[in-house]
Amino acid sequence: QVQLVESGGGLVQAGGSLRLSCAASGRTFSSYGMGWFRRAPGKEREFVAAINWSGTSTYYEDSVKGRFTISRDNAKNTLYPQMSSLKPEDTAVYYCARRRVSAALGFQTNTNEYDYWGQGTQVTVSS
Known about the structure:
Layout: E1 4-7, E2 10-13, E3 18-19, E4 21-24, E5 32-39, E6 45-51, E7 58-60, E8 68-73, E9 78-83, E10 92-102, E11 114-117, E12 121-126
Parallel strand pairs: 2-12
Antiparallel strand pairs: 1-4, 3-9, 4-9, 5-6, 5-10, 6-7, 8-9, 10-11, 10-12
């Protein structure tokens, strides 16, 4: 069983930054790509970014390109989503998730391609 535990959310002013963490249990973290999603109030969960299993390749949704980065430390079993130049419309609960298939090529934005999810961490950006 894999557990993903997120931390680092909070309240920040527009233009500010936050670094989230997603700690994974188990010994297979380094074999799987990871995704980062968010759910804003009243909206569906949406894709934000993804990183491949080795951390050498990333992919971002257009609205966060240049502002958000995703990285990982496989030795620490931890994913690090980082957000800067935050906007009020970035307010959401943020989730990390593990790809369903190990060592998969390419990136997936569909939630169905991810099998384990963190509990989510709230990020609120004030104007």
